[in-house]
Predict the 3D structure of the following.
Amino acid sequence: MKRKQLEMMLERLEGFSRPSFQKEQYATPASVAAEMLFLAGLRGDLGTVCDLGTGTGVLAIGAALMGARVVGVEIDGEALAVAGRNAKKLGADVNYIRADVSFVQLKGIDTVIMNPPFGAQKASAGDRAFLGKALKIAKTVYSLHNRGSEDFIRSFVKPASVQEIYRIPFPLKRCFEFHSQKVKIIEVELYRITCE
Ligand code: SAH
């Protein structure tokens, strides 16, 4: 499948019905998800994949469409209902688990691909919990972060190490009331981290 083709399919997916600001629910735009998954595919990292905080399932479904075996973990039942419909819509085979990433136990995962909450809000576990769990369950982790996260990520993931940082344009759509512009392009950082 071509990257553009995957992006167009992911664009058809339903978003969060009532995005929770507290849980930092923000769906990865299709263009960003397709880019992440293609980079992972090029590296041969799409074997058994886990999407931590799968939300409406964009990354999980995209990975499944690229041929990965996929588990998506999410705390919010309402988001999972959307994720289930989304998988069905595109005929993707995804296993969803309703759980808090801090407590979930998983075996046999090759790669975690995630867009973790930044941890700015109390109700969400935050990127530390997500990164910690990701590195516990997989040898390779793809994780999306705000620009300028490099120092924090490099030191937090030790003894695992950052192999690559990709800078990806991220169309930020207006979804919470206080965002004023309709679409703003920001740049985010995708980290490829491995534990050897
Ligand atoms: N992966 C999706 C959603 C990203 S938003 C995407 O790329 O589009 C982050 C998601 O993490 C939200 O759906 C939120 O509900 C979920 N989340 C926040 N804290 C969580 C926790 N402790 N355990 C599991 N999921 C959590």
Q: What stands out?
A: The first strand starts at residue 48 and ends at 52.
